[in-house]
Amino acid sequence: MRKYKWIVAGSLLLAFSCVSEDYFGLSSIGNIKNIEVSNQAQNAVINNDSLTVKVEIPSGVDLSNIAIEVLEISSFATSDKGVGDFLDLNNPQTIELVAEDGSKYVWKIEAFIASENPQLDNYELNLWYQTSTNYFEPGADASSTIWGTGNPGTQILNKLATTPIDLGDDNLAAKMETLDNGPIAGVFGAPISSGSIFTGVFNSDKIDPSNPEAAIEFGTPFAGRPQVLKVKYSYTPGTENKDKDGNILEFPDACDIYALLEIRSGGTVERLATAWFRSSTAQNELSTLEIPFTYGPLDASFPDYTFPTDHGFVSRDSANFVLPTHITFVGASSFGGANFAGAIGSVLVVDDVEMVYE
After folding, report:
1. Cα separation of 5 and 53, whole Å?
2. pLDDT tens-digit profile of 20-29?
3. Which residues touch 120 (CB under 8 Å, ≥6 apart)?
4. Alpha-helical runs (H) found in 155-245
5. Which CATH architecture best describes the domain 32-113?
6. Distance between CA atoms of residues 55 and 40, nearest Å
7. What is the pLDDT of residues 27-76, one digit of tens each?
8. In terms of Cα–Cα distance, which of 178, 212, 174 is closest to 192?
9. Cα–Cα distance between 33 and 50 in angstroms, integer?
10. Segments making up each domain of the chain, as ranges
């Protein structure tokens, strides 16, 4: 997805830096690492201690015919169910995993009814956890967070373009800054890092040096129909907007803040709704921004960058009533980071990413 490449560009460095680990003995681990089912409203709550999974399903959905759409389990383990199998979640169901050494684990899958007006988990951005390499990422912990940043691709350069900032009274927010990667990175065509935050995960198991985007899984399960994306933000553009070769551009840097509602099913993606804000205007004080969602196809009055590049829109008729399956939220300090373009010193602060319903 072209619009997301400014996030993954830094992961090129990470991809080439990874070293495979030797593995000895037979693994006894049989965990469910990730699961998504049809009509799921939020990320599943996975408890490795109790071997339970709780999935949130919107009211009115037929629980007797819920399909498994994603199932990621421990390496070397096997499962008695897989993608494409169906569960009757009117009652708790089980998935049996067998670890490499033969150990058996019986997981219980339960459903509960979702809120009609859901919010993103940790939408206030007050929760941040410390990673094993001693930097902070948004969320309660790595296993449950719906949020990701571009930091995994830049921290090997000792560059952290997205950090928590305390606004006072223990109210945290996300600070994104466009940083100078230094002369060595510049030689390899990566002179800057644009600060970024998004719903999704960086999956180190899927690192592919020939395709760094493969490691980024954008979006999180979501089943609401908000009318407005409401955020608090401030923005200061840097003074010189440059391309990747260091040439000064004729236009200023700008921030991006947007949310996309999508329907993902059977390996296809369709855009349901779009809320997009791009601005080069300085906003020195934290201010409330309200961006309306436009449901269905966009018309010619919308700029080209708001259109999907590798999939289409839902039909106009279905846009009036269908629920999304996923939401992708993105904030970035430099909109041109996909091409390593931006102004060093551009700073975007985002707080309270709220969905507003009628």
Report:
1. 32
2. 334 557 999 9
3. 146, 199, 220, 222, 327, 329, 353, 355
4. 183-187
5. Sandwich (2.60)
6. 7
7. 999 999 999 999 898 889 899 999 999 999 988 889 999 999 999 999 99
8. 178
9. 14
10. 32-113, 118-356
Separation between Cα atoms, residue 94 and residue 105, nearest integer Å: 10
Tell me the C-alpha distance between 209 and 223, whole Å: 34
- Are residues 130 and 73 in contact, defined by beta-carbon separation less than 8 angstroms? no
Fold of 118-356: Jelly Rolls (2.60.120)
Pairwise CA distance, residues 8 & 215, whole Å = 8
Letter for the amino acid at 314?
Answer: V
CB 209 within 8 A of CB 324: no
Task: Rounding to the nearest 10 degrees, give the CA dihedral for residues 223, 201, 348, 295.
Answer: -30
Question: Could you report the per-residue pLDDT of 108-147, keeping only the tens digit for each?
Answer: 999 998 888 999 999 999 999 999 989 999 999 998 899 9
